UniProtKB/TrEMBL annotation:
Signal peptide: none annotated. PANTHER family: FCH AND DOUBLE SH3 DOMAINS PROTEIN, FORMIN-BINDING PROTEIN 1. PROSITE patterns: F_BAR. GO terms for molecular function: lipid binding. Keywords: Coiled coil, Lipid-binding. It comes from the Eukaryota. Residues 2-196 form the F-BAR domain. It holds the Pfam family FCH. It comes from Hucho hucho (huchen). The keyword NAD does not apply. This is F-BAR domain-containing protein.
Length: 196
């Protein structure tokens, strides 16, 4: 309703809060989705490291004399070396999970909190400005109507004054009594015209 009265120029300059709100919300949702992905990946890394470590422990040779003799053979030592490497591999996955949690997830959570707060603040300020614009337009519209009404009134008074001024039966004092403001406004003009 207000936009119709303001004309086409308003449609080009109007702030696009709805589009901006959708765009920023989709950005926040993306960061939340990515954060969730990193959390799940960290959990998978921890679970994978635990499973690998359990597998390594399960096949570690027990400490008895018979198996110690068997471990002297090259194939047994290679298998034992593979189990140790597997244990180290599990440790690397634990480090990856810790880094994901401590560096990426923490930073993303902080960043997401800042984004939401900043977005809320900006939209609050924007809506406040939008309300001020709306109230200014309403005031402008009211002033326009009042100006148009006053112009019509002034035109009617001018016409009435001219009719009375043109009437030969009405004295100048009667005209000034009926229309004192217009008489005052026109008197200097008439005196200037007679001086010319």
């Amino acid at each position: 309703m207000m936009e119709e009265r303001m004309g086409n120029c308003w449609s080009y300059t109007k702030d696009q809060f709805d589009n901006l709100e959708k765009h920023t919300q989709s950005g926040i949702e993306f960061v939340e989705r990515y954060s969730k992905f990193v959390k799940e990946r960290s959990e998978i890394e921890i679970s994978y490291a635990k499973q690998i470590r359990n597998l390594s422990k399960k096949y570690q040779p027990k400490k008895n004399s018979r198996e110690e003799e068997e471990n002297k053979y090259t194939s047994c030592r290679a298998f034992l070396s593979t189990l140790n490497e597997l244990n180290d591999y599990a440790g690397q996955h634990e480090v990856i999970a810790e880094n994901l949690t401590s560096q990426i997830i923490t930073e993303l959570s902080r960043y997401l909190t800042e984004l939401k707060a900043e977005r809320k603040s900006h939209f609050h300020d924007g809506r406040k400005a939008q309300q001020q614009i709306e109230s200014s337009w309403k005031l402008l519209e009211a002033s326009k109507r009042r100006f148009e009404r006053d112009c019509k009134e002034a035109d009617r008074a001018q016409q009435y004054f001219e009719r009375m001024d043109a009437d030969i039966n009405v004295t100048k004092a009667d005209v000034e009594k009926v229309c004192p403001v217009i008489a005052l406004l026109l008197t200097p003009n008439q005196s200037q015209a007679s001086a010319l």
